[in-house]
């Protein structure tokens, strides 16, 4: 009589091998399940585009070219009465002479009279043009500038603007990088729309301090 199959030694060897194989299959890690330290192990590729954009913006930001700024401000509105231009890494500060006497002392060879000086600033809107239009032009011209300060003293009062690039972009609803590279955009989106007496006055009421 033949022995039952379950009494054969090789039958139990096969059973043992099958059990071991099934156990190994069940212990393979699931790539989407948390590990013991509660971290999720995933084989999906990471999207680092956001970090790349931040790093790119940092790399593209350069300190201002002082000589370029000085050359440009030598031709701004009211340049005759500019006392000094201070240039930082990302800020520009334009300071006008506080009196005609101080202007004349610094420029003894100038043929400008005190009457010329008074007539130039007396209307008030000329000061507004300097504070608004020149601060905005500087932000457009130098895209690495974050802040523009212009100070115009006249007849015992100091008119000044401290304009941040981000604030100006929100106020005018523009992007200065685009305006820098597109003259038509500069004209249609900003200068033609806002460079008028009424909008200059609104700008002054919003941003200019008089002390």
Question: How would you describe this structure to a colleague?
Answer:
This protein is an alpha+beta fold and 211 residues long. It has a domain at 64-210. Helices cover 51% and strands 15% of the residues. It has helices spanning 9-26, 49-60, 66-73, 100-106, 114-122, 125-141, 165-172, 176-181, 183-194, 197-207, and strands at residues 82-87, 91-96, 147-154, 157-164, 208-210. A 5-stranded mixed β-sheet has the order 1-2-3-4-5. A hairpin with a 3-residue loop joins strand 1 (82-87) and strand 2. The longest helix is centred in the N-terminal third of the chain and has 18 residues, at 9-26. It is elongated. Residues 31-45 and 49-59 have low confidence and may be disordered.
């Amino acid at each position: 009589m033949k022995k039952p199959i379950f009494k054969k030694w090789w039958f139990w060897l096969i059973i043992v091998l099958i059990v071991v194989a099934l156990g190994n299959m069940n212990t393979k890690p699931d790539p989407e399940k948390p590990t013991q330290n509660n971290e999720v192990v995933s084989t999906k590729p990471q999207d680092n585009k956001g970090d790349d954009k931040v790093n790119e913006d940092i790399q593209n930001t350069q300190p201002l070219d002082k000589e370029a700024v000085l050359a440009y401000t030598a031709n701004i509105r009211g340049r005759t009465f500019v006392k000094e231009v201070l240039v930082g890494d990302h800020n520009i500060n334009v300071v006008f002479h506080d009196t005609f006497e101080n202007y004349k002392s610094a420029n003894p060879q100038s043929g400008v009279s005190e009457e010329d000086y008074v007539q130039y600033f007396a209307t008030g809107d000329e000061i507004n043009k300097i504070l608004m239009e020149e601060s905005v032009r500087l932000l457009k011209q130098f895209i690495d500038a974050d802040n523009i300060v212009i100070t115009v003293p006249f007849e015992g009062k100091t008119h000044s603007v401290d304009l941040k690039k981000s604030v100006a972009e929100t106020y005018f609803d523009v992007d200065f990088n685009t305006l820098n590279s597109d003259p038509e955009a500069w004209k249609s989106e900003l200068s033609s729309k806002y460079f008028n007496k009424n909008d200059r006055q609104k700008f002054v009421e919003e941003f200019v301090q008089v002390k």
